[in-house]
Amino acid sequence: MNPGPFSLDGLTALVTGASRGIGAAVATALAAAGADVACHGNDRAPDETCDRVRALGRRVLGLRGDLHQRETPAALIDGAIKGLGRIDLLVNNAGTIRRAPAADTAEEDWDLVLDVNLSSVFRMCRLAGRHMLARGSGKIVNIASLLSFQGGLTVPAYAASKGGVAQLTKALANEWASKGVNVNAIAPGYIRTDNTSKLQQDETRSRQILERIPAGRWGEPDDLGGAAVFLCSRASDFVHGHILVVDGGWLGR
Q: pTM to 2 decimals?
């Protein structure tokens, strides 16, 4: 029996920022669809996520590295290939945020957010892309944001970085689509993660956000799993340079 269009059987994925939140949910969803997964953690080992992947009967590899450091992407790509044999799928999920009015944003905070959220994504894509281009196949999924489209409040570096992720996704798709490599992105809405914890704890702001979401609830990390599986599977073979919004209807309001 041929596997269905959403099957990831026989494929190997690398997911950054997989120790918790969206990354953990995506890594688990890819494993449930059949992929072996290399799970990356930055300040925290991805042990729990690795346990979930292993429980699904898939091969798993835990990796650590600070994506603020230029050498980390190469170490992650090399580690995943040595540990699992190849990289068919790359999900660039790792990200950080610093909240402050633009006039008060520190240089070091700007640099950190741009390095982790945008520069490391380019480095990961470039390195994994070389292997995929040589093979003539592969799928890359970048995690963008609603702030790829909107400016947000008191998060200028985050908004700039996620706008950059959306444009980088399109630029790479323009170059690589004809060579068998799909590059797309997911733009999550307001999801219950560590990055949105301050918003969740702000009673007024949380209520204002909830009132604008047509679905009537904040998103959960698991809400991103299906979108990731779609963009990593044969079902999306003719999808290139797309930013798939998963926001409970926020942008349509």
A: 0.96
